[in-house]
Structures are given as structure tokens and as C-alpha cells.
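May I ask for a protein sequence together with how it folds?
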Amino acid sequence: MHARNRIAAAAVAVVGALALTACGTGSTVVDKPKENAAAKADSGKDAEKEKDATPEVAKVGDTLTLKGMEDGSRLDVTVVKVADPAKSADEFFEPDSGKRFVGVQFKILNTGKAVYNDSPSNGAQVADSEGQQFDSTFAEITAGPSMSSSLKLKPGATGLGWIVFEVPKASKTDTVQFTMDSGFADQTGEWKLR
């Protein structure tokens, strides 16, 4: 019996060490948008003007390139629109008292060589101006169709849909984040909402 406890304790220690290693190494936040194709085409601008034209951080409408954990796993992710507050599409399903729905429409393009197969809402969060973070919730909103909960995209394919968050009415949403592989990939994309 005593030997079993030592083996169990050793197994827990190994699993804990692996979890810390997997979650704690190389995590980065990507917030520099891809260069706009129109800006590339206009070669008449000098270098300083082009630098000023590129936003320092991504905002609504910008695309970020993110890598997943698997070799060849890469997405171009765009925050297309924000609905704040968002109205429930179901009269029987409303936000809890003192809260509101916020919807973010994402466009996901598989630019990698591997099939993308995930639930995008698992890797999405919004944060308010105080730094409080809120995970996604299952809700349908009137702004449009939800993102699929089991999105499968072959290389070159695109997915589009709304991810909904439930936040306090007084919170001022500031950023939205998206991470591949249900939130476990090393790169997290971040867009300013204001």
C-alpha cells in the first residue's frame, strides 16, 4: 500500500511538471497585424509614411497570423466585427442579471499545411479595461450565425462566425484574444476593441 502511494505521488509530480512545461514555455502574444496589401501596392510613399500607416497593434478589421502546436498548423485570424452589447437570438436565453452579451465575429483562414480541427470558442477571451478576462459562452445572437463548435478547415479553407462572451454591464471591453488548439498553442493573437 505504501509503495502505491509513492508511485501515485511520483506520477502526479511527473504530470504536473509536464503540464507546467507545456503551458509555461515560449508563450507569446501576437498583436502586429499583417501588412495591408493596398499599402504594399502604393510604392510612392516614403518609408516613414508607410511606417505611420501600419497600426502598432491590431484592431477590428486586422488580420494576425498564428501558429498552432502541430507542424504545418497556421491560421490567418481576422476580427471582422464587434457587437457590444449583443442581443440574444433566443427570448428564453438572456445574460445573467447585471451582465450583457458581447459578440465578436472571427474569420479564420487555414494558411497552414495541416487540417485545422478545433472549437475556436475554447481559445477566445475578452478583457476589460481593468484587466478582467472573460471566457466565451454558448449563446446565439441576432448579429449572425455562431462560429462552429467543431470547425474543420482543410488548407486554404475559411470559417466565419460569432463568438459570444458574457461580461458585467459596467465593464468596458478593451481587447479580444484568440489562441489555437483550444487555447493551448504558444501564440495568442490580441486585438484592441476600442
Summary: The first helix runs from residue 2 to 24. The chain has one domain: 28-192. The two ends are 59 Å apart (CA to CA). Confidence is low (pLDDT under 50) at residues 1-26, 37-51.
